[in-house]
Design brief:
Shape: globular
Strand content: 5-15%
Distance between the termini: 16 Å
CATH class: Alpha Beta
Organism: Candidatus Roizmanbacteria bacterium CG_4_8_14_3_um_filter_36_10
Strand order of the largest sheet: 1-3-2-4-6-5-10-11-9-7-8
Keywords: ATP-binding, Ligase, Nucleotide-binding, Protein biosynthesis, Transferase
InterPro entries: Amidase, Amidase_CS, Amidase_dom, AS_sf, GatA
Bound molecules: glutamine
Subunit structure: Heterotrimer of A, B and C subunits.
Number of domains: 1
Largest sheet: 11 strands, mixed
CATH topology: Amidase signature (AS) enzymes
EC number: 6.3.5.7
Number of strands: 11
Radius of gyration: 21 Å
Structural class: alpha/beta
Amino acid sequence: MNLSNLTIKEATLGLKKKKFSSNQLVKACLDKIKKVEKKLNAFITINENGAIDQANNCDLYFKKFGEGIFEKKPLLGIPIAIKDLFSTKDLKTTAGSIIINKYIPPFDATVVKKLKNAGAIIVGKTNEDAWGHGSSGENSDHGPTRNPYNLERVPGGSSSGSGAAVASGECFMATGTDTGSSVRLPAAYCNLVGIKPTYGRVSRYGIIAMASSFDTVGHLTKTVYDNALTLEITAGKDSYDATTVPKDVPKYTHYLEKSIEGLKIGIPEEYFISGIDEKVENKILSAIKQLQKLGGKVNKISLPHTEYAMATYYILVPSEISSNLSKFDGIRYGDERELFGDEAKRRIMLGTYTLSSGYYDAYYLKAAKVRTLVKRDFEEAFKKVDVLIAPSSPTLPFKIGEKAADPLQMYLSDIFLCPVNLAGMPSLNVPMGFIDGLPVGMQIIGQQFSEKLLYQVAYKYEEATQYYKISPKI
Ligand code: GLN
């Protein structure tokens, strides 16, 4: 049996039935890492000894307390990976940038702490576009990550290493951050389930900030069940992050089987624009038919301010970036600022300009107002429908280097994903099949705090299609 290709659900069942130990699970992932890392470059740091020690502890724990321990520690003995934007105690954290290449955090981000408390084992820190700036992984100072389904292509970014690592079986789950697309795009390009939760659902404490009014923490997994289970663990109020909302976290996994008969599905007409790859369009149309077969009722919906979303995003996000990155000044934090990569420099310049006196009203303030209009579009839509369905990306995973020289082309990969972040809504990517051997994803968007419903819809779709079973041949 190839242990590293199991889902979390299957691995936990195997552990409970003593078919294998956590030590074996971790070793299977470490072996996979040794085998494929030279090709993929999904990790910046590998925690080999730490992971094996932790696995041995988990095995002892299970021996001592028996099966009941999984109630308290639902991820006991499961190897996972953490995006390098999350602070991990005693484990190097670089944000994908050489500016903080020597940072060993003295504490864990809240999400990391929760995952560890649930028994998960960290096998390593994943590669990413530096600071989260990017859609392909090519902006990493540690070299690009490659797509395990096709090594000439990008895995999607900025959580590029997390996508490649889960898809290839180097770990069972990886964390990501989604400021404009960065969980859902790598999930779409790597045949994975990726959640961008409601803004404020998951604590960002201990995560290096990109754009604070947009940043969310999400997870990449092979299946919907695994994703729902992880969010159950990580979501909730955190006194260290004042933007988290004191709302109960449902047991998402308990509701997955519910029928979606009568579900009102909206198709945003502005998302079916010229520029969308015809093959992707055909795929989403057949996915919609599949949802209809499952009982969904489909209606066209308009999100009239969609055309302004990208421009608004690329004013507000660089503004917040220029402010958040100002502390990395070579004195308080990090090495000298000349070491920032081109993309970070571009955003710092843009953000400094849009926030400067005289231009603030014309750009920042105006964009903040348009943001409200984009949010209102979604609110109006959700008066009529339960969820919105769209492709996650207008194109297939592109070739490494194909868009690197043209930032505007790169930014357009997020055209269907970033409006959701402007509005703070949750959205889930679920695998929608393959085109020419390359994975494509469907996005399910819901109103705030509707993650439970998103998982139900995705679960039914996954049950009917089972694309997650197609692993990359690497
Ligand atoms: N690709 C988008 C950007 O470059 C989103 C990145 C993200 O979500 N971290 O800003």
